[in-house]
């Protein structure tokens, strides 16, 4: 049985904070970019929050990590000077850090992830929502046994979490 790591309410509160972070980036507003690997549902919720704040005029693109990433980025993002790349989980960091490496050649790049696993260094990101133990978690917006749930669940039982860990 899985145990709740981060509640939906806590996630939404942190996404409000991410929306504020985006708003504070000022002009020119960065294009909002997500990686197709896990950030799409997260991006949709962020866009809903921005819309509630009457912020609707911003570019949004989805890039698929892989061999043609640089070509996609060049084609889709050529008109933007600044980019905010968001993803659900900063696990190994490989996808976000590689995307920054490619995008930084032509853009000012900011990185954001909802979850930062505690084996990573927070300064690798410009924004993160939660720091969690290095346990495997479902990606954002995955279905659980009770149906669609935006909360994240780990695959270990609660008694296997590190001693003293308190879920946000």
Give the topology, please.
Layout: E1 4-6, H1 8-24, E2 31-35, H2 40-52, E3 60-63, H3 69-77, E4 82-90, H4 94-103, E5 108-117, E6 127-132, E7 143-144, E8 147-148, E9 152-153
Parallel strand pairs: 2-3, 2-4, 4-5, 5-6
Antiparallel strand pairs: 1-9, 7-8
Helix pairs in contact: 1-2
Main sheet attributes: strand count, strand direction, barrel closure: 5 strands, parallel
Query: What is the top-level CATH class?
Result: Alpha Beta
Biggest sheet, strands in spatial order? 3-2-4-5-6
The total of beta strands comes to 9
Query: What is the total domain count?
Result: 1
Low-confidence stretches: none
The fraction of residues in strands falls at 25-35%
Provide a count of the helices. 4
Shape: globular
């Amino acid at each position: 049985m899985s145990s709740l790591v981060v509640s939906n309410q806590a996630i939404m509160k942190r996404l409000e904070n991410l929306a504020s972070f985006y708003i504070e980036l000022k002009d020119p507003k960065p294009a909002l970019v997500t990686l197709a690997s896990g950030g799409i549902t997260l991006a949709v919720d962020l866009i809903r929050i921005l819309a509630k704040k009457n912020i609707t005029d911003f570019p949004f693109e989805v890039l698929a990590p892989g061999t043609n990433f640089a070509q996609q980025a060049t084609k889709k993002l050529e008109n933007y000077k600044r980019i905010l790349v968001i993803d659900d989980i900063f696990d190994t960091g490989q996808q976000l850090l590689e995307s920054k490496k490619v995008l930084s050649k032509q853009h000012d790049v900011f990185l954001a992830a909802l979850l930062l696993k505690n084996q990573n260094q927070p300064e690798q990101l410009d924004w993160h929502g939660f720091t969690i133990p290095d346990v495997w978690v479902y990606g954002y917006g995955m279905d659980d046994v009770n149906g669609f749930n935006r909360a994240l669940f780990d695959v270990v039982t609660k008694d296997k979490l590190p001693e003293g860990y308190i879920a946000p």
